[in-house]
Amino acid sequence: MSNGWCTIESDPAVFTEMLEKFGVEGVAVEEVISLDPSSLEQLGTLHGLVLLFKYKGSKREVNYQPESGLYFAQQIVQNACATQALINIVMNRKDDGVTLGTTLQEFFDFTSGLDPATRGEQIGQSDKIREVHNSFTRSTVFSFEDVAAKDDDDVYHFVSFIFKHGAIWELDGLQPAPILCTNATDDDWRDKMITSVQSRIAEISAQDTTGQGQGISFSLLGVVADRIPALELELALLQSEEKPTTLVEAQLEQLRQEREQGRIENSRRRHNYVPMVVALLRALAEKGKLEGIIEEVKQKKAAQAQAGGKK
After folding, report:
1. Side-chain-side CA neighbours of residue 159 (13 Å)
2. Per-residue pLDDT tens for 100-143?
3. Which are the catalytic amino acids?
4. Which of 51, 109, 169, 228 is deepest in the core (most CB within 10 A)?
């Protein structure tokens, strides 16, 4: 955790519940497996994409557009990029089927007239936003808040891509303004977004110092219209018309189960397992089994190291 903000895992269940805690309605986050038109089409209404990648910090030649008319907040607080990636998307979609909820609507009203850097500062000073963000921290017995990152440490960063005002935009909180990727229309913006993201991935991959494509990793999430309310509405309509509902009921049940499983996984992420592990180790020690287990593990490690050295 840095400056009171923890790192966030790139997981659709984490991002979906984060939006729910902010009070955002009608939105969910799903993993994007493949960057092709059919995959994006299956997502339904797409509000934006969130790209996670290993950050190298190199300079870029890009088309900054300070007067884009977009809502854009710079990242002033370290580790806040995941939350800012989501905020930068939903703030620009509040008139397109996204209900911000009280927290983000009030934040939008307060910061809409500010410059990107000041908006970023206000995110850092928002107790509610920080509270929601940090509710997804993984529990640990130690705090490394004051430990400085090494030059060779892996640092990951989130950026957003949206379609608005006839263009595809990259919203990177580490940059001073929105980046114009390419112009687009209502007919071709999905294809243009795919091309823009692919271009960004290729640009990042070119920074790979291993020369074998192993130095960079990516994750892509789609911020989409929540399908559960739509299916609930469709189910109610079918029932009122006394039409078959089996298929819709099955789809709805599957989504509800997936959503609940995501909440369970999030709860597990937050749970502190350290006391349980300590109690287990203490019990093994009291029974005289701990030293034997440790010695067995050491022998296995030594055997693996020896086998690896013979290759």
Report:
1. 20
2. 999 999 999 999 999 999 999 999 999 999 999 998 776 554 44
3. 81, 157
4. 169
